[in-house]
Every structure is written in structure tokens, then in C-alpha cells.
Please model this.
Amino acid sequence: MSSFSATAPATAFPRTAVAGAQAPPEPDFGPRVRVFAPGTPAAEVRAALDAAATGPAGEHQAFLFRPGRYRVDARLGARTWVAGLGLSPHEVTVEGALRASGGRGPEDGDAVAAELRPPVENLTLVPSAGVPAGGVVASRGKPFLYVDGAGAYRVFLPALRGGAVPGGGGPAHGWSVPLDRFFVARPGDSVRTLNRALAQGRHLLLTPGVYRLADTVRVKWAGTVVLGLGLAVLAPVGATVPMTVSDARGVRIAGLLFDAGPVTSPVLLELGRSGGGRSDPRAPASVQDVFFRIGGADTHRSTDAGRPPEGAQASRSGSEPAGGRAATALVVNSDHVQLDRVWAWRAGQGTGAGWAAGGPGRGGCPADPPGRPGVRFHDLPAVARDGAGTQAHAIDGTGGAAQGAATVAG
Model:
């Protein structure tokens, strides 16, 4: 069982180094994680990122930058994740551009990604052009992987704070956990293997890829951390519930995408036991950078490395994807749970997309159609992102068009 203390004091962690100490060996994060050092040639970094951006669909990859300065001008694919390995964003500086749009010159796109899930974390970007986009965390930051002054990999758990300024500098406040307290998982690992590690009191670090789950990943102990790298996708097989949390006190879940399978799951993530889970305001649970997708994905088209998922049965359509189905995306039975950048959505395009598709019985239609008597809408803008494409009207045939230079219309 992992140790847990609701009242453990937060500690400030300045960057320190041990003179003459030999750096520990590099962890084996698998083939989908690449680590760069300041001495890595810029052309090599760019080639790796560009290859990931144009590579086969469905291959999630993570690129990690050790503390230092880099000169990078590269594309970021939809399944590419980039992160600094410093204890603060100031320890990794990238000069140049990281382009979600795939532009090749300063005039061809934003300098940093602004996709649904921001694929860039824990670094400082000095853009050559465009405007970087980012978000502000809530009252407690998400866990993150970093390299300490001796070269060892650790996971930092930010403390619960009030009145703090993100990126304000100074020492980090929280707890530092050595990587050997984590089970470093790969997509081929079985649910039994993951649950055995959790039962032994270890945390989980899920490396990129699709984890096909024929049973439930069960988080039993307070204070457990489940952290995904760039991006870890949990895809249920059959009507499986992908993950449950028994005791939510101090549990941190971050960096995951729950992708509903072709058979309806009753829920994709459940925190706390039904009827009221244990909680503590001094040690809230947190769900951060976690996404739930129902329908529209190609996750269930095939399996990693050609292997059938554990316990899987052939579908009637063979290799064709089926629309994802789930009754409920997220159930929270406990008090004192922080939800920070949580997206739960039904697909708007792709396989199984549609407002009534996918099986969720919750979530209402946001508005009546404008043609219904007595219904009025006001102060509704239409936005065409970056001037690419056209939003013809705000609702049906009502409202002006957003297109070209006029990216916002009322």
C-alpha cells in the first residue's frame, strides 16, 4: 500500500546538482518516447518531429527535452506530444517554432500548437513568429516528469496552493517521487499486470499508445498517481469500465484519453464508490488533461503491433472501425475532486458520429432551433480559426459569416 498523508507539508525544491556524481542510466520508455539533450543537432530534432507529424495515423509519440536551450522549427502532428524535463518551464527554452498547422515558414502558421489538447508542456517558447497559446492550471498543477540535478528521472506532484502565479519563477512547491516508485507501462501490458502494480502500492506511468482493456484498471489506494505520456489512450474491449478509483483521497489522474469502444461501457472513469466515496479537502483528488471520446475515432480499427487485444473477440465487420459507445463518460462519487481541463464529448465527425449516437443518455441539447416561436439568441459570435475555412452563420441561417480576414462575426 502506498503511503498517504493528508497533512504532509509541501516542500520547495530548488534545482541542485551533485558535483562529480555519475548520471544514472536512462530509463527505457519504449520506442514511442524520444529524449533530446541540448547537444542534439537541431536538424535531428526537426527531422524526428517532422517524421512523427507525417507518419502513420494512430501512432502516438512523446518527445522530451532535457534542461537547456534548443533551436527548433518543426511541425507537430495531431498525435505528437512535447514536454520539457525541467523542474520548471524556465529550465527548457525552445527558440523557433512548433507548428500545429504544419506551416514551413514564419508566415505559414502559429508558432506553437493550439489544438484540442495542447501537445506542448513545461517549457519556455521564444517564437520566431506567431503567438504562442497556452492555458492556466487550476489550484493544483498536474504531475509531470522531470530530471533532477543528479540526472535521475522523477515525477513532481505540485502542492495545492492559493494565490499562486503560474510561471512566476522560484522553487517548485510539492512532492518529488522517484521514477522507481512507478510502474512504467507500455500498450502491450495486460490489465492484470497494471492491477498487480497498483495493488503493490506503485504508481502508473503510461507511455504513449493505445491500451486495450478487457478488464478494469482498479486504483485502490489513496495518493495513487496515474500519469500518461503523450497521449496514453485507454480503449475498453467489450462493455468494460476502463478505470475505477476506490479511495479518491489525493489520487491524481492526468494525461489520458478514454476512447469508448464499439460495445457500450456503462462508464469510462468512476471516482469513488457509488453512494459516496472517501474524500478530504486537504488532499483533493484531481483529474487533469483527461479526455473522453465517444465515437468518431479510428482507435478500434486495428491493434498495436498486430496483436489482438487481451480478451478481444472479432467484430462482425472485421477490420472496419465501429463507433464508440458509452452510457456515461465520467462519474464522480466523491467530494473534493478537482477537474482541470477535462473534455468529454461525442464525435462531430468520423465513424459513429452524431448527436444521438454513442449511447450517452445525459447531456441536453444546448438550444432550441431559432424557428421556434418565442426563442431569441443574442451576443453569439461565430469564429473561423486563423481565417482558415468559413463559419457561414452562428445558427442555421442566422448571423453573419466568419471567413478570411473577418474571423469573428456576430
